[in-house]
């Protein structure tokens, strides 16, 4: 059975908040504020603040993101199952990154934390 979330809503509403509670120190190592804008069914907008104490994941664009990730929901699911797909999607123009592009490179570290939670 796969531990991947069914959709972005499950990931950001359930798995990410649980992971942030369990691994706040790991989240703080990433030390950034992200906004995820995921279009299509199962998508939505979330602000993930890995600088706050404790780190948070909340619905909506709080307007304070240092890095914003915009992607279609199907492409987002591809990224979750294949971390290398992010670069391909970016170069295909299907993944849009605004703000600090270096922070996008830390996303894998962040998703590893969420994946740990999914496996527990």
Report on this model:
It is a single chain. This protein has helices at 8-22, 24-30, 73-81, 85-91, 101-104, 107-119; strands at 33-39, 44-49, 56-59, 67-72, 95-99. It starts with 7 loop residues before the first helix and ends with a helix. β2 and β3 (56-59) form a beta hairpin. α1 packs across α6 (107-119). The chain is of the alpha+beta class. Helices cover 46% and strands 23% of the residues. It has a single domain, classed as 2-Layer Sandwich (Nonspecific Lipid-transfer Protein, Chain A), CATH 3.30.1050. Strands 3-2-1-4-5 form a 5-stranded mixed sheet.
Give a quick set of tags describing it.
alpha+beta, Nonspecific Lipid-transfer Protein, Chain A, five-stranded mixed beta sheet, 5 strands
Mean pLDDT: 90
Regions with pLDDT < 50 over 5+ consecutive residues? none
The count of DSSP E runs of length 2 or more, i.e. the number of strands, is 5
Q: What's the CATH topology label?
A: Nonspecific Lipid-transfer Protein, Chain A
First-to-last CA distance: 13 Å
Order of helices and strands: HHEEEEHHEHH
The CATH architecture classification is 2-Layer Sandwich
Name of the level-1 CATH class:
Alpha Beta
Describe the structure in brief.
With 120 residues, the protein is an alpha+beta fold. It has 6 helices and 5 strands; from the N terminus they run ααββββααβαα.
Question: Secondary-structure map with pairings?
Answer:
Layout: H1 8-22, H2 24-30, E1 33-39, E2 44-49, E3 56-59, E4 67-72, H3 73-81, H4 85-91, E5 95-99, H5 101-104, H6 107-119
Parallel strand pairs: 1-4
Antiparallel strand pairs: 1-2, 2-3, 4-5
Helix pairs in contact: 1-6
């Amino acid at each position: 059975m796969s531990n991947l979330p069914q959709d972005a809503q499950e990931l950001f509403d359930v798995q990410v908040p649980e992971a942030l509670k369990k691994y706040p120190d790991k989240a703080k190592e990433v030390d950034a504020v992200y906004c995820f804008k995921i279009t299509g069914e199962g998508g939505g907008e979330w602000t993930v603040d890995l600088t706050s104490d404790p780190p948070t994941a909340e619905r909506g664009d709080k307007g304070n993101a240092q890095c914003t990730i915009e992607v279609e929901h199907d492409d987002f699911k591809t990224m979750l199952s294949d971390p290398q797909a992010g670069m391909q999607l970016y170069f295909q123009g299907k993944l849009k990154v605004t703000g600090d592009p270096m922070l996008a490179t830390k996303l894998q570290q962040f998703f590893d934390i969420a994946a740990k939670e999914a496996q527990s």
